[in-house]
Every structure is written in structure tokens, then in C-alpha cells.
Write a structure and sequence with these properties.
By secondary structure, the protein is of the alpha+beta class. It has three helices and eleven strands.
Length: 206
């Protein structure tokens, strides 16, 4: 329960901030998916919150859900933390601060920890962006370290977003190295709409 509570703090704050607007919106555009913790072998939890705004700043869609923490991230963290002398790894090109982008797609990705890429990247460079902020809450006592990442998108074209990934670099092919992946009920965006993605990653917590 402690891990679940920490992992969704960012989503709870977001819900409070937009609740007044959400009550006025079409219920069909408001979706909350599973909030059961999805835990990797490294003791990590992930949670993603997406909020779409129209050109006037009104909330038009909201999604929140736990996400898949991939085997690629497990391997990359191990390689970065320890002097590995041998052994095959799913991590490609591990380097400090390698996971620095969030990417959007319009397909349905694998939701297994073996997933390595989004199903269908949205065909515009603006569908992959760096972090607007990445705020670390340091580990203390039995509480793990929590990172709240925020990225803002303005695609400049109509698209329906159905998947997102936390990844290394602005890669839009199957060669991507993904830290976390999740799909969700489609968010239709117009050319003037914007999308805020907040990704919460909790490491340890025991």
C-alpha cells in the first residue's frame, strides 16, 4: 500500500487541480485505468498522468494509469550502478542520464516487461520531447526515491494519442531503448491542442 500511495501522489495532485474543469467535460473523455501497482524486479513502480487542453486552456481529456517498467530499464540501471564484467544485456548504449525523452504514439504497444518500443509513433518530430521538469524527492529512511517528470506537447496537427513511452533519446523506430511504456484510451488532439504528460517513477520504497 505504501508503494501504491507514493506512486500515485502526482496523479492525485493533478486530479485536484483540474477537478472543477473535469466535472464540466464529457464523461466519455475522462478515463481512470488500473491503479494496481505494476512492479519490476528492481523494485520500481511507474505511474503516468495525461491531461489534454484545448486552445483556450480548458481540459478536454484526462487519463491516468500505472505503466510497464521494462527489462531494458532494469538492465540499464544495473549496468550504470555496477562494474559488470560479463553477461548479455537488453540495455543498448547505457550512459548517465540516458532516459531523457517522452514519446507519443497512436498504436497499442506490448504491455509486457519485455516490451522495447511503441507500436506506432506519431509521425512528427513534435511527438517526442525532452523534460520540461524532472523533480527528484530523495530517498529517506524506508521511503524510496521518487522522480516526477513533466513533458508538454504541442503537435501542431490532429492526432489520437493511445500510447506513451519514457525513453532514451528522440528515437522513433524499433531501436528505441524504453524505460517505461503504457497504452490508454485514445486522446483526440486537434492542431491547436496541447498535452501534458506527467510520469512518476518510484524506486525501492521498502
Amino acid at each position: 500500500m505504501k508503494k501504491l500511495l507514493v506512486a500515485i501522489i502526482g496523479a492525485i495532485i493533478a486530479v485536484g487541480a483540474v477537478s472543477a474543469s473535469i466535472m464540466m467535460e464529457n464523461p466519455a473523455n475522462m478515463t481512470t485505468l488500473s491503479v494496481s501497482p505494476i512492479k519490476s524486479a528492481a523494485g520500481m513502480l511507474g505511474h503516468v498522468t495525461l491531461t489534454a487542453y484545448d486552445e483556450n486552456g480548458n481540459v478536454k481529456a484526462y487519463r491516468q494509469t500505472d505503466n510497464i517498467i521494462t527489462n531494458q530499464l532494469d538492465d540499464c540501471l544495473t549496468q550504470l550502478a555496477f562494474a559488470v564484467s560479463s553477461g548479455a544485456s537488453a540495455c543498448s548504449g547505457s550512459s548517465v542520464r540516458m532516459f531523457d525523452k517522452i514519446a507519443l504514439g497512436s498504436g497499442t504497444p506490448s504491455t509486457a516487461e519485455t516490451a522495447t518500443t511503441l507500436a506506432t509513433y506519431i509521425p512528427t518530430a513534435k511527438a517526442v520531447t525532452g523534460f520540461s521538469s524532472a523533480v527528484l524527492t530523495q530517498a529517506a529512511g524506508t521511503n524510496g526515491a521518487t522522480l516526477l517528470i513533466t513533458s508538454n506537447f504541442a503537435l501542431g496537427q490532429a492526432a489520437t494519442v493511445t500510447e506513451a513511452a519514457l525513453q532514451a533519446g528522440a528515437v522513433t523506430t524499433g531501436a528505441a531503448t524504453e524505460a517505461a511504456i503504457q497504452s490508454f484510451t485514445g486522446i483526440p488532439l486537434g492542431a491547436s491542442d496541447t498535452l501534458e504528460v506527467q510520469w512518476t517513477v518510484l524506486i525501492d520504497g521498502n
